[in-house]
Design brief:
Helix content: 25-40%
Number of domains: 1
Number of strands: 12
Number of helices: 8
Distance between the termini: 30 Å
Radius of gyration: 17 Å
Strand content: 25-35%
Order of helices and strands: EEEHEEHEEHHHEHEHEEEH
Low-confidence stretches: none
Length: 242
Amino acid sequence: MKLEIIDLHVSIDDKEIVKGVNLTINQGEAHVIMGPNGSGKTTLAKAIMGHPLLKVTKGDMLVDGKSIKEMKANERAKLGIFLQFQNPIEVEGLGLLNFLNTARGAITEKPLQYKEFINEIKSASKDLGMKEELIGRSLNHGFSGGEKKKAEVLQMHILNPKIAILDEPDSGLDIDAVRIVASNIDKLQKERNMGMLVITHYSRILEYLDPKFIHIMKEGKIAREGGKELISEIEKSGYSDA
């Protein structure tokens, strides 16, 4: 699977936030976007997933050469695109297990047998260091910030996307939680040959990931691109010289 972002311009309430982004993510590749607050990173992620409040004013998004610009979010999910939210919402009354089982069935149209599904959930949640009691709760209800981020990675494990977009999976996490979350992300990406785009402000999560492509986003555009050498430059001088 190949995701191509071509000269993408995105507005919110008639204010242009993304101002001409070009980006290609092939299945199996790990990309990182870094940049200061307000640079358009989250808006880009939401636009790829099809957020209804965003307006694509110019450009296109292609999956294997076909435009997805007019597709709804659930249609993009069926293609194999996944978005991990920066601030996951709580949905009281919607059981996490039921949500994951229904979502997986809707996307794959080949739901697991319930026993197999439960075993996969338990194994994945154990790897993430999630308390077993959380699995029986409503979606994110009463979860801490770290537990919500782990639950998002659990969703990625169960839904098994071809391309995953992770919006600040490290925000609000302590050092141990960053290590656990990042290590699980890295394992999934490599074992399942996922294409991946990780959005972050900080380099500490990159100690546990192995991205080949680093993109620096400023003022709605990708200002610089390169490999891991960009990380040390940003640590020294910040984003001012990017």
